[in-house]
Amino acid sequence: MIERRSKRELYFREQDYTTEKYVVPYIQKYLRLSHQHRVLEIGCGEGGNLKYFIDEGCEVVGVDLNTKQLENAKTFTKQFCKDTSKTKLLNLNIYDAKLEDIGQFDLIMMRDVIEHIPDQEKFLSFLMQFMKSNGIVFFGFPPWYMPFGGHQQGCRSILRKVPYFHILPSFIYKRLLQWFGESPYATDSLLEIKSTGISIERFKKALLPNIWSILDETLYLINPNYDIKFKLKPRKQLPVIRSIPFFRNFVTTCAYYIITPKK
Asked: Nearest Cα to 71, choosing from 95, 44, 52?
């Protein structure tokens, strides 16, 4: 069991656990990782998703807008990783990243990030320049309509335990957050997530077919990350549910995708 220390260190360890146990085997079906590969994570947070790749000797770049989380990532990777000499952690908006500065990558990681990014179609087109020709991108995200797709579990009030209320119309959603005493910052953040929240169908539509190919799509009834958080065994979505557009979003807690540039 993970030792409970600071919440942010705990989050680092939870990320590391899920990435090594579930995400890496998923990726390895399409890319046999070695020290020769370059890995980029967009929205790296505390860096827990990167620990496995750093320890494998990959050349790693992590990018995040949040200054505090990036500083935590620098602290935790130095403390818990074998060797960070091939690792760069950059506090910047990915749109400000220059190809000549960070180069191209064999693997781009985006775990629990795409649902925070506005105009996903534009973003996915922009991402192409950082891909090697045979590179892949991993996405893991909670579909917007799932019980806690609004990230309301981060609320301080009883609303953190209320499923599905994030799908209410924005003006009602905002009023509820205010009535239950959520701070203006938290309210604005949750409304921003509401504006960018992504469904399975919206994600696939954003993958312009002349630019990207989907190599793998796996939908989960029980998110792999719930293993370390709640001691729940991950379970893939039932085929009959997986085949029903829109409805599947309400009962799918996590979607994994591997995409690659169109040949």
From this structure: 44
Distance CA(141)–CA(203), nearest Å, equals 10
Cβ atoms of 47 and 12 within 8 Å: the answer is yes
pLDDT per residue as tens digits for the range 209-230: 889 999 999 999 999 999 999 9
Task: Report the domain count for the chain.
Answer: 2
**Residues 187, 240 share a domain:** no
Residue 190 sits in the same domain as residue 211: no
Q: Are residues 19 and 54 in the same domain?
A: yes
Q: Can you say whether residue 45 is alpha, beta or left, with left for phi > 0 and alpha for psi between -120 and 50 degrees?
A: left
Query: Per residue in 69-94, pLDDT tens?
Result: 999 999 999 999 999 999 999 999 99
| Residue 70 and residue 36 share a domain | yes
